[in-house]
Design a protein that fits this description.
Elements (H helix, E strand, L loop, with lengths): L3 H4 L18 H94 L5 E5 L4 H4 L11 E5 L7 E6 L2 E6 H25 L1
Parallel strand pairs: 1-2
Antiparallel strand pairs: 1-3, 3-4
Helix pairs in contact: 2-4
């Protein structure tokens, strides 16, 4: 029967692969320790640099994704706000602006009349407006313009329009065109906003 020591390999100090004892002096031992330390330090440093580089790549990727998500969220919220305001803006243009245009029409006519009286105070002036504007314009013409002023109706004129005839000179005040331009601008803005949302 074999002894247990014969079956197991001896890992004792100084045992070599061929069973020989390796002997080293202190300098060789110190050099081996320093070399092992340098290799371990270098491996740790390389591992730290690799980890930092991977972290930076991950952080950059996450930041780019978050910025893209944030940008999409902003555009989505902006378009929803604009779409929500569209009915209100349309109602304002259709109901409020015609009233403002009617009021502003009288002021434009007054301004033109005052300018004309400075140039040729003796000539008569004819102001032609839509029938619906007569009641709003007539009180404004009660001033003394130092010339005869006649107010007449023309059903072919829109509510925001007026013709001022001063001798051979005729000028048209057209606030309807301004209102139409505002409506077209709003519709164009809404269409551009929808296209931007679709295209991202």
């Amino acid at each position: 029967m074999k002894a247990l020591a014969d079956l197991l390999e001896d890992f004792g100090i100084g045992a070599g692969s061929a069973g020989t004892i390796i002997q080293m002096n202190e300098d060789e031992c110190e050099a081996m320790r320093l070399d092992s330390f340098e290799q371990g330090y270098k491996a740790g440093w390389d591992d730290a640099i690799k980890t930092q580089s991977e972290d930076q790549s991950r952080i950059s990727s996450d930041l780019a994704q978050n910025l893209q998500d944030l940008s999409f969220t902003y555009h989505e919220a902006y378009s929803q706000v604009v779409e929500g305001m569209a009915p209100l803006l349309n109602d304002m243009i259709e109901s409020l602006l015609p009233t403002l245009a009617r009021d502003a029409l009288g002021l434009h006519i007054l301004e033109l009349l005052q300018d004309m009286t400075l140039k040729q105070p003796s000539q008569s002036v004819e102001i032609v407006v839509a029938p619906g504007n007569r009641a709003a314009i007539a009180p404004l013409l009660n001033k003394d313009f130092k010339m005869p002023v006649e107010l007449t109706d023309d059903p072919q004129l829109a509510e925001g329009q007026a013709d001022i005839r001063f001798g051979q000179i005729e000028r048209r005040v057209d606030l309807t065109a301004v209102l139409n331009n505002i409506q077209e601008a709003l519709q164009g803005f809404m269409q551009d906003n929808r296209k931007e949302v679709v295209n991202g």
